[in-house]
């Protein structure tokens, strides 16, 4: 009697990262979007660029057609507001579950429990390429440590969720990824866990993974200096207020890390109420207009239609178009209004700085 794999029901071959990239290659134009936007995001994080980073999009993509429809609208708005906002579309394909539930488009692309992962990887990569063709950068959450090999070359900004911020596997993964990574505080509100993760990810690590050809290998990383904390609130309440931000900045400074914070307007900060996301954004906008610089970015959950709907596996045809099947999202009209308000706030902060700089120069000249 074998002592191995006693609880494994079946296994199937998995497409290799190299084969998938050969089927759906990154074009030169798309590569330029990724490279330029990664640089832009890093400059915003470092304060070299005074724009606000905005990561906005569906809680999770379940319909590639609706996802691309949303991307077209966001790309046009992003171009219009590009002087004040650095916009990255949230394109999440993997959903961490507290207990059970739909695990995302890569795991179950047919939304019926068939778990055709190879098909899901192909759909996900092609959607990312379609969005990049619009000139719009994309951001993804990395949940499974193998998945990044299939799509990371298309991603300009990544995130590690609240449930995996304390995972050594994910901290090691961050240390080798090629883009800035935001790491959330824990679901219980522990900000130090995110600070520790940022510090760990900035260091080099050695760990097992898979190569482009799908073979097991040992990877050595250089460390990722562009990781940062995301304040997402918790079951205890929100943490986007100025006091919480200053407390987080203090912890980062104590750890010898760059003092940069992104606020997640959803999850614990909105009490999972999509109607409160604009309230969070308005508070951040007011503070930015008043000169606050510690918050370098904001995350928002948004889709074509407001709210959410229940997904019954095997009945995808019954779903309303453009509405989330996971967390409730803001609708497009509200999203557009929120982004315009944030852009206006950045413009006000910049104008105020310009006035102060002119006054200071005049004072020095007079003296």
TrEMBL record:
<dbReference type="GO" id="GO:0005737">
    <property type="term" value="C:cytoplasm"/>
</dbReference>
<dbReference type="InterPro" id="IPR013785">
    <property type="entry name" value="Aldolase_TIM"/>
</dbReference>
<dbReference type="InterPro" id="IPR006218">
    <property type="entry name" value="DAHP1/KDSA"/>
</dbReference>
<dbReference type="GO" id="GO:0009423">
    <property type="term" value="P:chorismate biosynthetic process"/>
</dbReference>
<keyword id="KW-0057">Aromatic amino acid biosynthesis</keyword>
<comment type="function">
    <text>Stereospecific condensation of phosphoenolpyruvate (PEP) and D-erythrose-4-phosphate (E4P) giving rise to 3-deoxy-D-arabino-heptulosonate-7-phosphate (DAHP).</text>
</comment>
<keyword id="KW-0028">Amino-acid biosynthesis</keyword>
<dbReference type="GO" id="GO:0008652">
    <property type="term" value="P:amino acid biosynthetic process"/>
</dbReference>
<keyword id="KW-0808">Transferase</keyword>
<comment type="similarity">
    <text>Belongs to the class-I DAHP synthase family.</text>
</comment>
<dbReference type="GO" id="GO:0009073">
    <property type="term" value="P:aromatic amino acid family biosynthetic process"/>
</dbReference>
<protein>
    <recommendedName>
        <fullName>Phospho-2-dehydro-3-deoxyheptonate aldolase</fullName>
        <ecNumber>2.5.1.54</ecNumber>
    </recommendedName>
</protein>
<dbReference type="Pfam" id="PF00793">
    <property type="entry name" value="DAHP_synth_1"/>
</dbReference>
<dbReference type="InterPro" id="IPR006219">
    <property type="entry name" value="DAHP_synth_1"/>
</dbReference>
<dbReference type="GO" id="GO:0003849">
    <property type="term" value="F:3-deoxy-7-phosphoheptulonate synthase activity"/>
</dbReference>
<comment type="pathway">
    <text>Metabolic intermediate biosynthesis; chorismate biosynthesis; chorismate from D-erythrose 4-phosphate and phosphoenolpyruvate: step 1/7.</text>
</comment>
<feature type="domain" description="DAHP synthetase I/KDSA">
    <location>
        <begin position="40"/>
        <end position="339"/>
    </location>
</feature>
